[in-house]
Every structure is written in structure tokens, then in C-alpha cells.
Design brief:
Elements: E1 2-8, H1 17-30, E2 35-39, H2 41-49, E3 57-61, H3 74-83, H4 91-108, E4 115-119, H5 127-133, E5 148-152, E6 169-177, H6 178-197, H7 205-215, E7 220-223
Helix pairs in contact: 1-5, 3-4, 4-6, 6-7
């Protein structure tokens, strides 16, 4: 059994909230697998207003202030933002990237599923992705093996710390069973602390994930994209 986990909040981000509205509508009208979706009351009201049937979705209302990321301190995230080469990122965006695994851990208590797939709420952006998402989370994908399954979109020489424009992992969709997610969470936090100590921004989850793989490669299973019209940053939509 598989559960999709996602979240969306109105935060200072790469683009205005209105730009994501169409993506959200595609997301909810295409995914058929059981979903646990974390969001705020105002975004939930907008989703209801879309008129999309969501009987398979369990909504969990919370606020940005409830994020576990803030346990590290606002100064921590401000520090990462100052170091981030990609200055269009914000501390709130970095916090929600960190929070992905925390949302999955919250979902453990809400679902009896063996496998949990994190999927960004903005991951379905065209008709090809929407069609692929009809089977997302319902396919017999071999991901219940104690590993974190990641989308690998390139090759890269190992580095002690990764920065823009390094590109290897697409972090929008990540899959694993409970054991894998717990292991990943502990490793991620340690690697993130090391980035901070070294004075390197750990805002972007894809860079931290790449370092996690360098440290414990046995925890990760890399998948390659297939040749299709689905965006390569979201190709798990047609594989899982």
C-alpha cells in the first residue's frame, strides 16, 4: 500500500501564489492514489473552490509557524539564505524543502501504508504529466526495500559540498518505506549541520540529498528518466 504526501502554503517563493494555482488544480484532478495533504486553511479554501473531487485526499490543516524547521531557529535559515547563490530563494522556501521529510513522518500516524511518496504540489504542469499521474502511486513499483528512491537527472563528480549550478537529483518526488524515511531523516539532518558548519548554504534539498548519497550510498536507489514528454524533473510520475 502506498500513500502520496504533499503540502502547499502561501509563502514568499520563486513566483507569486497565483502562478501555482493552475498546477494545484492539475495535481488534484489527476492523482488517484491515497493522499495526505498538509496545507493552511486559506489554501484549503482555494482548493475546495476549484471544484475538484478529493475523496481520496486527507487534508491536514496547519500553519507555516508549525513547521519543525523553525526548531533550528530563524537565524539558522537566515544564515542559509545569505549564503545561497540563488538569491530568489527565501528562508520560508528553504524551510518547506526541509519539511518534506517531516511531513512524511507526520503521515506515518495517519496512514497504514508501507510506502510513502513525497510529491511536490507543483509537479504536474502539462497534459503529459497529468495523464501519467493517473497511475502515480498505484503502479507495482519496487520501492519497498529500505532505500530512498530518487530521480537522477545527470552525472556529477563527488564533491564535499554541492552548490549551484551542480545538478544531479530532482527532489520534487522521493519514495521509500518507513524504515528508509527514518534513516534518511537522521542522515539529512547531520549532513545539513555539516553544511552549516562549513559555511555552505543547505537551503536546497537537492544538494543536501546528493551529499547524503555520497556518505551512505547504500541508502539510495537512483532512477533515470525515460524518453517521454513528461518533464525530466518529475519523471517519477510515470514510473511509480
Amino acid at each position: 500500500m502506498t500513500t502520496i504526501v504533499s503540502a502547499f502554503f502561501k509563502i514568499p517563493s520563486k513566483r507569486p501564489y497565483s502562478d501555482y494555482h493552475a498546477h494545484l488544480k492539475r495535481w488534484f484532478r489527476s492523482i488517484r492514489s491515497p493522499v495526505i495533504f498538509f496545507t493552511s486553511a486559506d489554501v484549503y479554501a482555494d482548493i475546495v473552490a476549484m471544484g475538484v473531487a478529493t475523496p481520496h485526499v486527507l487534508f491536514q490543516l496547519m500553519t507555516v509557524e508549525d513547521f519543525a524547521a523553525w526548531d533550528l531557529g530563524r537565524d539558522f535559515w537566515g544564515r542559509q539564505n545569505e549564503r545561497d547563490v540563488e538569491q530568489y530563494h527565501t528562508p520560508e522556501l528553504a524551510a518547506i524543502w526541509y519539511e518534506k521529510k517531516e511531513f512524511v513522518k507526520r503521515a506515518f500516524a495517519l496512514s497504514a501504508a508501507d510506502v510513502f511518496i513525497w510529491c511536490d504540489a507543483g509537479a504536474i504542469r502539462n497534459e503529459a504529466s497529468e495523464a501519467a499521474a493517473h497511475g502515480f502511486g498505484l503502479r507495482e513499483a519496487p520501492v519497498n526495500d529500505g532505500r530512498i528512491h530518487v530521480q537522477c537527472i545527470g552525472t556529477l563528480e563527488c564533491s564535499e559540498y554541492y552548490k549551484f549550478p551542480a545538478s544531479k537529483y530532482a527532489g520534487a518526488i522521493i519514495a521509500g518505506n518507513r524504515e528508509a524515511w527514518v534513516h534518511f531523516t537522521h542522515l539529512y539532518r547531520q549532513v545539513m549541520r555539516d553544511y552549516d558548519t562549513a559555511g555552505v548554504s543547505c537551503s536546497s534539498d537537492q544538494y543536501v540529498m546528493m551529499s547524503c548519497n555520497d556518505r551512505v550510498p547504500a541508502l539510495f536507489c537512483e532512477h533515470s528518466p525515460t524518453h517521454s514528454s513528461v518533464d525530466r524533473w518529475f519523471f517519477f510520475l510515470e514510473q511509480l
